[in-house]
């Protein structure tokens, strides 16, 4: 028997590979198959490549790595597969194999290392925000887009309008419920979210308090490891997961609330990530069982805070890591429908990723751009007054291709505006 091309550390499991019956039902929802029509850039083709590698019939370097790198990890194939193939587990077993065993070109490695040296660190992101503000004031963005290599051009074009007061603001550690306490929750404030989308965290605390939740937001929390987990950097993800568990498990709360789809999906996976670690397996499983997206918490609580009308056609974009990876689709819609006057509409091709996908729009800028343009076109087609989506990555990506023509918010910001009677436009 030929030896597997994977190393012995958690390779993709044979039983999971065998679950795929090659029916092709997943093909229409796969963004890379939609773009290129290439079998090896479809879920079925990638599972076939994993199968060949597991049998030792293809090496990891070369075509194998190219097709796996081109996958967005959007998990649309998991939603659409009638056979219950766990492509999420297959991909999360495969990517660390590539990171460990396939040497990357020097420039590729430097670029990826640069991303991981910046994004998980709030202090560094704040320093980047200062530079970003100067950069935007000098109007360098348009020039840079023309002269920089594609990856750097894509990364700088994603920078949102920087407001230093928000970037350096600190969230209160404890926010009391504004009604008799119904739940006690802890909030993950995130890295990019805390620095560039601080207002979303503020809105989250306010809405939870208005709905009768006491909210604890520990200052010492760090990155949850989501970017590393989804990119195959297993050591990074594991270390971050342990730190996050150690910070939150001390708190006497019912739920650990997340308002970033990508972070929520990785935190719900800590139990699986640390299942083999005798010291952490039980703690990780207990932690993951408490993690909820903000929309899940709010949908479970019958509303007590008065809503003021917001008369607007609101398009809801399902972030892949909320809809596909966590299966949370109805809760945000249910919450948004509690706002009088909101006409909630779905997008055409709603299942297709916008091209953000963690670090994908920086490391694979060309397909990400095509998907971003396509998503922007689908948003324009429904002529909304507003777009809402529950992931900062999606907001940055869509803003890049839609510009400022349609205001964009996190759903909890819209709800906060309704509860507080504020105008959102
Ligand atoms: S992943 Fe699922 S839907 Fe896609 S080919 Fe395999 S069995 Fe069919
Ligand atoms: S995760 Fe997304 S891009 Fe990757 S194979 Fe599945 S549908 Fe295609």
TrEMBL record:
Instruction: Name its co-factor(s).
Output: [4Fe-4S] cluster
Give the matching Pfam families.
Answer: CCG, Fer4_8
**The reaction(s) this protein catalyses:** (R)-lactate + A = pyruvate + AH2; glycolate + A = glyoxylate + AH2
**What keywords is this UniProt entry annotated with?**
4Fe-4S, Electron transport, Iron, Iron-sulfur, Metal-binding, Repeat, Transport
Against SUPFAM superfamilies, the record matches this protein to: 4Fe-4S ferredoxins (SSF54862)
Instruction: Tell me which InterPro entries the record gives.
Output: 4Fe4S_Fe-S-bd (IPR017896), 4Fe4S_Fe_S_CS (IPR017900), Cys_rich_dom (IPR004017), Glc_ox_4Fe-4S (IPR012257), Helical_ferredxn (IPR009051)
Entry protein name: Glycolate oxidase iron-sulfur subunit
Protein source organism: Prauserella marina
Enzyme Commission code: 1.1.99.14
Q: What is the lineage of its organism?
A: Bacteria, Bacillati, Actinomycetota, Actinomycetes, Pseudonocardiales
Which PANTHER family does the protein's record reference?
GLYCOLATE OXIDASE IRON-SULFUR SUBUNIT
What's its job?
A: Component of a complex that catalyzes the oxidation of glycolate to glyoxylate.
Provide the cofactor note recorded for this chain's UniProt entry.
Binds 2 [4Fe-4S] clusters.
- Molecular function terms from GO: 4 iron, 4 sulfur cluster binding; glycolate dehydrogenase activity; metal ion binding
Q: Which residues form a coiled coil?
A: none
């Amino acid at each position: 028997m030929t030896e597997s091309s994977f190393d012995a550390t958690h390779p993709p499991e044979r039983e999971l590979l065998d679950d795929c019956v090659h029916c092709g039902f997943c093909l229409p929802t796969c963004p890379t198959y939609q773009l290129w029509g290439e079998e090896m850039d479809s879920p079925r083709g990638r599972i076939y490549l994993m199968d060949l590698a597991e049998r030792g019939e293809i090496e990891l370097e070369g075509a194998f790595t190219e097709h796996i790198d081109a996958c967005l990890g959007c998990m649309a194939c998991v939603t659409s597969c009638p056979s219950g193939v766990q492509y999420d587990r297959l991909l999360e077993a495969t990517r660390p194999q590539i990171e460990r065993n396939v040497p990357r070109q020097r420039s590729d490695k430097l670029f990826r290392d640069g991303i991981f040296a910046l994004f998980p660190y709030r202090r560094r992101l704040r320093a980047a925000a200062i530079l970003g503000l100067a950069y935007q004031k000098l109007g360098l963005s348009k020039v840079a887009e023309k002269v920089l290599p594609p990856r750097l051009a894509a990364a700088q074009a994603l920078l949102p309008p920087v407001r230093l007061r928000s970037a350096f603001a600190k969230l209160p550690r404890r926010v009391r419920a504004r009604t008799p306490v119904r739940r006690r929750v802890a909030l993950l404030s995130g890295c990019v979210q805390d620095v560039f989308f601080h207002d979303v965290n503020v809105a989250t605390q306010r809405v939870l308090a208005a709905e009768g939740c006491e909210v604890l937001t520990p200052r010492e929390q760090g990155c949850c490891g989501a970017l590393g987990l989804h990119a195959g950097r297993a050591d990074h993800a594991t270390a971050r997961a342990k730190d996050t568990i150690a910070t939150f498990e001390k708190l006497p709360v019912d739920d650990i609330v997340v308002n970033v789809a990508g972070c929520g999906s990785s935190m719900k996976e800590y139990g699986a990530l640390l299942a083999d670690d005798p010291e952490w397996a039980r703690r990780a499983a207990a932690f993951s069982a408490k993690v909820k997206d903000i929309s899940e918490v709010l949908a479970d609580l019958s509303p007590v805070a008065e809503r003021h009308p917001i008369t607007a056609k609101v398009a809801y974009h399902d972030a892949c890591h909320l809809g596909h990876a966590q299966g949370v689709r109805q809760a945000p819609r249910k919450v948004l429908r509690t706002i009088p006057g909101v006409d909630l509409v779905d997008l055409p091709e709603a299942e297709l990723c916008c091209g953000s996908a963690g670090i994908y729009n920086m490391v694979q800028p060309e397909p990400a751009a095509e998907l971003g343009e396509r998503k922007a076109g689908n948003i324009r087609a429904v002529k909304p007054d507003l777009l809402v989506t529950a992931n900062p990555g999606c907001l940055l990506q869509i803003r890049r291709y839609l510009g400022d023509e349609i205001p964009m918010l996190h759903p909890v910001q819209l709800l906060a505006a309704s509860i507080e009677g504020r105008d959102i436009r």
